[in-house]
Design a protein that fits this description.
This protein is α+β, with helices and mostly antiparallel strands. It has 8 helices and 36 strands.
């Protein structure tokens, strides 16, 4: 098939492809935003570069590079958010890099937020204080820091870890250079997202949500950049997804490095729900009220927002990244999954809707409004290329069972066998004798109802039910027989179902065939039954027969001074296997 015919049959227009764009990034560092408030959306990319000195924040307009700003460290995430209500309503750019969040307004540096410092290990601080006062030498400092690292609960600072990683000849100069400086322990940012403050509008003020290396999630105020909320995780968060408003109600979903997804709700310091994945997550998106995660074992898994698993599909190759496709004009939402086999698959739930073939392995995906086109797909490749595709206005996704209504399998005609003469005769008989057949059915049904009612009344009269029906003494009893014989352990579990009043003055009596069984305590008094407690009453039964037969032992629960039992049970004794073997 030629490329022209492939283009005609595709649902996407190839708008731009630049294999030499030199963009090395991930989905978390790509964003589409109206930076100047003119309705023309720009492409914002946090470029990782090819070395430690090429990290840049690049902004594209159309196919041209509009501006670029150098970054001091590798970017972890890029987000566009509104931080104030002033006109013009232009969003700011937040770039998470190391322990800092760099905020840009009008593509100029505006503010730098630093993560709160962590607690320093007191033993580590004492060791460096001794080195500062020249009380210990370099080998002693190394030995003491290694002891602290092995035993202390608080991890060492970056300075101490770098010192321990050096070769012995370099340790003296490192210690002399840094021993006079105060010791600090700083964490770094691993992921970042945005959360609407108090309104769900498109141009509403948003808070920054930050995941850190020390298993924390922070929610920042958009104006003062103070910490509004702090949540703890069992592991380091790798991906974040947030929905709702901070002042009303919100759900925060975090996929962590330990292969689990944790879900928070408003005012919860610890996870409300937990999902254990089959392997480490590669990406996380929320489609309406469901959570979809791509895993490194070539699976795509769907869950409810309470953690119940909905479905799992096996992917044809290893997933590289995932992103949400939200076509607002048609109300269509699906998941874009980039695979290692040079394909991008579009899934709605577990149905494959579309396949896009690319020239290189895709490492980042972003779908949304770009320029003045509403449905634009922006991708970067492993080799640094930039791919831009536009969804055709006539494109409609209808894949398999994803359509609304009954599945297609129901419309397939079954291979029904031909009607036999016996079937036709039976049908004619049912037509002719329908009244008589219905009367017989009703008579048999009423007979079953009568038999069940008689049996139930007889059980109530003889107290054979396991629960006493008398309102004065509401009791419940069940019996357990243990052993293989000739001696059995018989345990009666007796309990009062009354909520307030205890049961007192109860007697337990056993009725059995004395030629088959012997009991040392065939009659004893039960203790006071306190409401809510289960009382196990134990006794031993000895089988006297060696003929391999068994019988029923009747148990009566009586009130002292009365002959009618409150409760009665029949215990079917097992055959004494021990005596038969002997």
């Amino acid at each position: 098939m030629t490329s022209a015919s492939t283009q005609a049959n595709s649902k996407w227009l190839d708008a731009h492809y630049d294999p030499m764009a030199n963009l090395y990034t991930f989905s978390s560092c790509v964003n589409l935003a109206d930076l100047h408030g003119d309705g023309e959306y720009k492409l914002v990319v946090g470029d990782l570069g090819t070395s430690w000195h090429d990290m840049k924040l690049k902004v594209y307009r159309g196919t041209d590079l509009l501006s670029e700003n150098a970054l001091p460290d590798l970017p972890a995430s890029v987000a566009a958010f509104l931080m104030e209500m002033h006109e013009p309503r232009t969003p700011a750019l937040a770039v998470a890099s190391g322990p800092f969040v760099y905020v840009y307004k009008n593509l100029r540096p505006y503010f730098k937020f630093t993560l709160p410092p962590l607690e320093v290990n007191p033993l580590e601080k004492d060791v460096w204080d001794q080195a500062k006062e020249d009380k210990i030498d370099t080998p002693t400092l190394k030995e003491m820091l290694e002891m602290v690292r092995e035993k202390a609960d608080i991890p060492l600072s970056v300075r101490s870890l770098r010192f321990l990683a050096l070769d012995p000849p370099e340790m003296d100069s490192f210690m002399n250079q840094y021993k006079m400086q105060p010791i600090k322990r700083q964490t770094v940012i691993t992921c970042m997202s945005t959360l609407k403050k108090n309104m769900a509008d498109e141009d509403a003020i948003s808070c920054l949500v930050i995941g850190t290396e020390n298993n924390e999630i922070l929610v920042l105020d958009p104006e003062a950049f103070t910490v509004l909320a702090r949540m703890m995780l069992p592991s380091v968060p790798a991906f974040l997804d947030v929905m709702g408003q901070f002042d009303v109600e919100y759900r925060l979903t975090a996929a962590c490095r330990n292969g689990c997804i944790y879900i928070f709700r408003r005012d919860s310091k610890k996870p409300k729900y937990s999902i254990e994945l089959s392997s480490q997550p590669v990406g996380l998106v929320r489609v309406q009220k469901n959570i979809v995660a791509a895993c490194s074992d070539q699976t795509l898994q769907g869950y409810t927002q309470k953690g119940k698993k909905l479905w799992t599909i096996l992917l044809p190759a290893t997933p590289m990244t995932v992103s949400l496709m939200d076509q607002k004009s048609r109300g269509f939402q699906a998941v874009l999954v980039a695979l290692a086999n040079l394909e991008v698959h579009l899934y709605q739930d577990k149905s494959l809707m579309n396949v896009i073939r690319t020239q290189d392995v895709v490492t980042s995906i972003c779908f949304g409004r770009y320029g003045r086109e509403d449905n634009t797909l922006v991708m970067t490749t492993k080799g640094g290329g930039l791919i831009i595709k536009i969804l055709k206005r006539t494109a409609v996704f209808d894949g398999g069972d994803a359509s609304i209504g009954a599945p297609i399998a129901q419309s397939i005609k079954l291979n029904v066998p031909k009607k036999t003469k016996l079937y036709v005769d039976q049908t004619l008989r049912e037509r002719e004798c329908s009244v008589a057949m219905y009367q017989v059915f009703q008579m048999e049904l009423n007979r079953i109802h009568l038999l069940a009612a008689r049996t139930y009344a007889q059980a109530l009269e003889s107290s054979l039910t396991p629960i006493a029906e008398t309102p004065q003494e509401p009791l419940k009893m069940n019996a357990v027989v243990q052993g293989i014989g000739p001696t059995f352990k018989l345990t009666l579990h007796l309990q009062t179902t009354s909520a307030t009043r205890p049961a007192i003055n109860l007697l337990i009596s056993f009725l059995y065939d004395e030629r088959l069984y012997y009991m040392a305590r065939p009659f004893f008094k039960a203790p006071m039954l306190v409401p809510g407690l289960n009382y196990p009453l134990e006794t031993f039964v000895e089988c006297r027969s060696d003929k391999g037969i068994s019988d029923i032992i009747k148990v009566f629960v009586l009130r002292e001074g009365e002959s009618a039992p409150l409760l009665m049970a029949h215990i079917n004794m097992p055959i004494s296997e021990g005596l038969a073997a002997a």
